[in-house]
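quick one, 177 residues, struct below
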Amino acid sequence: MEVLILENKTNSEKDRCLRQKASPVKNFNEEIRQAARNMMDAMRDGKGVGLAGPQVGLLRRIFVTHADGDEPRVFINPSIIWTSQEQVSIEEGCLSLPGVYADVKRPGKIKIQAWNEKGRAFTLEVSGMLARVIQHEYDHLEGILFIDRVNEAKREKLLSKLSKQAAGREKSQKISR
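---
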């Protein structure tokens, strides 16, 4: 399972997928369970702590997490039902924007309802890193990237860095052929 990298190009299929709102999962079947397993593997391979369906070309409302100090989790059709007033600024990165990092301000605590891969509903109230990861992955389901949560000047700087990295990757791929 390949993680899509933002290309920042107008006609990019990958960018359209990353920027599109995901549809609800309708069937809790073996296909969605296998997708969750594959996403967990891709997240671990990328050394990430979360991964959402749109990041692997699956436009469904599913994401996986494995934050430090927490167990691996699957969230299907999640809804964030409460957020704290307290805002916390922490540096974020993303498997779909490799090498790009920025401080993002988000609520310090949240409450989320979702279903696991077995179709069982659950509610979690969390803070710290897990709250951060959940909000970041939830944004992916809405077609929002963490760079959308920083000011325009910072976003342009980050996109420029991403474009330079992509050009470098393309150049090295041509040389290795």
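The chain has a mean pLDDT of 94.
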